[in-house]
């Protein structure tokens, strides 16, 4: 499908627009112990008086707890994550100011506990301290700055070290920019690949994208606002200008926007456009590629182990970009042979 890229503001207009008035549930800064800190990770707190979180009575299980934290709207934190923050013996965070601000918004007292900074630059020094706490049977909470730990965020080496030492590793799932973007993109969600950030240099970026172009799955990338135009231009070269995509900006925040359309149209739209905020790019899978008989048969056999014949044929046709009737007939023949 081709056509004009259509930005879809999901909340309200950009600042300075005539229609940029806060909605009834607008998120406003909160006063309190962290009010003197700069805005942390774009967190938007709820309006109204501050409350104190009442944690569950059940004690927090010993082990390393990875916590997903809001990517914008502070109310996206889960009750379980708040329980863990309230009851953990030790708390570690990619950005301590961000987590302190989040805890303050939700009335989770820190008490006499300390929040340790743990990130890519100090991991080797901090891991032994966290592992010692785990060895003592403590409950340790780790929170990334925004979103789910290990998804383009620190935590992998910490998790591996804890597992190798025989400690329990648990996850308190929650906000994820990857899944939020996939949900609103309108692109297939049955199979997807999160590839993170593209390389910064033009030649390396193009080679990297060319490896992703034939992948039979929806591709999800992160990008900075300063490089989004370069990325879209490179995507046109490697994926083709007709490939459908969505540029998702400021997800869950006040000026959330999703722009959908063919890559060529998106590249033209963002070429001279100054944008701000966190960006996720979602690109449709390779379509219309030639699949030989072996590819088709293997895909059908796999799908038929999980689905009825009609559903399997439809799924494979979608994945390989082939006509549904052609794939259905192949599935019938395969079923007859079996």
Automatic annotation (TrEMBL):
Catalytic activity: cytidine(1402) in 16S rRNA + S-adenosyl-L-methionine = 2'-O-methylcytidine(1402) in 16S rRNA + S-adenosyl-L-homocysteine + H(+)
Main location: cytoplasm
Chain ranges of the RsmI HTH domain: 291-334
Localization, UniProt: Cytoplasm
Keywords of this entry: Cytoplasm, Methyltransferase, rRNA processing, S-adenosyl-L-methionine, Transferase
Start and end residues of each stretch annotated as Disordered: 1-57
Top EC group: transferase
E.C. code: 2.1.1.198
GO cellular component labels: cytoplasm
GO molecular function: rRNA (cytosine-2'-O-)-methyltransferase activity
S-adenosyl-L-methionine found in the keyword field: yes
InterPro entries: 4pyrrol_Mease, 4pyrrol_Methylase_sf, 4pyrrole_Mease_sub1, 4pyrrole_Mease_sub2, rRNA_ssu_MeTfrase_I, RsmI_HTH
HAMAP family from the UniProt entry: 16SrRNA_methyltr_I
Family of the protein in this entry: Belongs to the methyltransferase superfamily. RsmI family.
Protein name: Ribosomal RNA small subunit methyltransferase I
């Amino acid at each position: 499908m081709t056509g004009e890229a259509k930005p879809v503001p999901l909340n309200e207009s950009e600042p300075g627009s005539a229609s940029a008035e806060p909605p009834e549930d607008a998120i406003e800064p909160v006063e309190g112990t962290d009010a003197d800190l700069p805005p942390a990770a774009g967190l938007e707190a709820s309006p109204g008086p501050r409350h104190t979180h009442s944690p569950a009575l059940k004690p927090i299980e010993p082990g390393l707890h990875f916590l997903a934290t809001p990517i914008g709207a502070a109310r996206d934190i889960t009750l379980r994550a708040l329980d863990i923050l309230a009851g953990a013996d030790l708390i570690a965070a990619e950005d301590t100011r961000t987590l302190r601000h989040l805890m303050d918004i939700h009335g989770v007292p820190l008490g006499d506990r300390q929040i340790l900074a743990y990130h890519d630059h100090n991991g080797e020094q901090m891991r032994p301290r966290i592992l010692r706490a785990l060895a003592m049977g403590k409950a340790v909470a780790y929170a990334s700055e925004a979103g789910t730990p290990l998804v383009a965020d620190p935590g992998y080496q910490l998790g591996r070290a804890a597992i190798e030492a025989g400690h329990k590793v648990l996850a308190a799932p929650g906000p994820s920019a990857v899944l939020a973007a996939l949900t609103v993109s309108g692109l297939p969600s049955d199979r997807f690949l999160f590839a993170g950030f593209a390389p910064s240099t033009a030649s390396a970026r193009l080679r990297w994208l060319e490896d992703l172009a034939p992948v039979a799955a929806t591709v999800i990338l992160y990008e900075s606002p300063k490089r989004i135009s370069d990325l879209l231009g490179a995507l046109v070269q490697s994926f083709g200008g007709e490939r459908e995509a969505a540029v998702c900006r400021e997800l869950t925040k006040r000026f959330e926007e999703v722009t959908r359309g063919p890559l060529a149209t998106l590249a033209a739209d963002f070429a001279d456009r100054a944008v701000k905020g966190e960006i996720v790019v979602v690109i449709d899978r390779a379509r219309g590629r030639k699949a030989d008989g072996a590819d088709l048969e293997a895909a059908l056999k796999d799908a038929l182990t999980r689905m009825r014949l009609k559903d399997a044929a439809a799924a494979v046709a979608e994945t390989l970009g082939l006509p549904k009737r052609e794939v259905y007939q192949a599935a019938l023949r395969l079923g007859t042979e079996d």
